[in-house]
Task: inverse folding
């Protein structure tokens, strides 16, 4: 993994440079913005965390947070000389992830940054092993399928069919192809096992989510995962 990028937004140049020098010693890449207007031109998906002062001329840190929160999902750590509880509550309620009062130690700031980035990495790591469609979620590590939060009692073969179709949305699989991919060419099972398994899958899903279609039958062709009305 490359260096994590931190954007420090503060109109105090000395504070910015001090934070930059310290974090760069600990292998972070740091960019500086001395105003919210300047920060708006620099904020993008490459930023891993934002250190944001509150009291700045023009657009203050609170307003900047409101402006960017819908388009960036990285952690935002407020730093401010404001020590009142209501200031902290407001900062956290508008999308801030942490609040440190000035003066603060650089060691504490780095510890907070490290903690938030570790948490983000755990979240992203977990998401890589979850596959979702409509109300269905597959945990690819646990080999389990959930519908509306309820674990579905699929057999191993039923699970493999659902995973195959969900991983290949809009791809039509014939019964023969599903049989080959799930049971294998050397299996002694019959081709009709595919039809029976899909019938069971639909029944188990319908018990939890009767209103939603998941596996579509294309007569004479096979089956595919139905993405109709799926959230993008």
Result:
């Amino acid at each position: 993994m490359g260096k994590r990028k931190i954007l420090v937004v503060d109109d105090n140049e000395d504070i910015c440079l001090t934070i930059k020098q310290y974090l760069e010693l600990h292998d972070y890449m740091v960019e500086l913005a001395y105003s919210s207007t300047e920060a708006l031109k620099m904020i993008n998906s490459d930023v891993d965390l934002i250190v944001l002062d509150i009291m700045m001329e023009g657009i203050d840190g609170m307003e900047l947070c409101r402006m960017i929160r819908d388009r960036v999902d990285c952690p935002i750590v407020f730093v401010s000389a404001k020590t009142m509880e209501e200031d902290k509550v407001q900062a956290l309620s508008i999308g801030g992830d942490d609040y440190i009062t000035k003066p603060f130690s650089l060691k504490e700031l780095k510890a907070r940054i490290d903690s938030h980035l570790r948490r983000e990495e755990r979240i992203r790591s977990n998401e890589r092993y979850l596959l979702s469609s409509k109300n269905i979620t597959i945990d690819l590590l646990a080999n389990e399928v959930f519908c509306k939060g309820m674990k579905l009692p699929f057999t191993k073969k039923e699970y493999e069919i659902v995973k195959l179709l969900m991983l290949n949305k809009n791809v039509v699989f014939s019964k023969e192809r599903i049989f080959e991919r799930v049971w294998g060419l050397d299996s002694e099972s019959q081709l009709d096992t595919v039809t029976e398994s899909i019938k069971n899958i639909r029944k188990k899903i319908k018990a939890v989510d009767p209103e939603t279609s998941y596996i579509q039958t294309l007569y004479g062709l096979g089956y595919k995962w139905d993405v109709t009305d799926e959230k993008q």
